[in-house]
Amino acid sequence: MTLLGILARAMSKAGMAKPSCLVKPVSLTRIPGRYLAHQEGLPKLPVPPLSQTCDRYLAVLEPIMESEELNHTRTLVEEFQRPGGVGERLQQGLERRAQKAENWLSDWWLQTAYLDYRMPVVIHSSPGVVLPRLEFSDRQGQIRYAAKLIAGVLDFKTMIDNETLPVEYLGGKPLCMNQYYRVLSSCRVPGLKRDSVVNYASSKRPPTHITVVHNFQFFVLDVYNSDGTPLTVDQLYLQLEKIWNSSLQTNKEPVGILTSNHRNSWGKAYANLIKGKNSFEDQVTWYDHLQPLLDKTNKDSVRAIQKSIFTVCLDAPMPRVSDDLYRTRAATQMLHGGGSRWNSGNRWFDKTLQFIVGEDGTCGMIYEHAPAEGPPIVALIDHVVEYTKKSDMVRTPMVPLATPQKLRFNISPEIKKDIEEAKQNMNIMVHDLDMNVIVFSYFGKNVPKSYKLSPDAFIQVALQLAYYRMYRRCCATYESASLRMFRLGRTDTIRSASIDSAAFVRAMDDPSIQNSEKVALLEKAVKAHRAYTDMAIRGQAIDRHLLGLKLQAIEDLSALPDIFMDTSYAAANHYNLSTSQVPAKTDCVMCFGPVVPDGYGVCYNPMEEHINFSVSAFNSCADTNASRLAHGLQDALLDLKALLEQTPKARL
Question: What's the whole-model pTM score?
Answer without folding.
Answer: 0.87
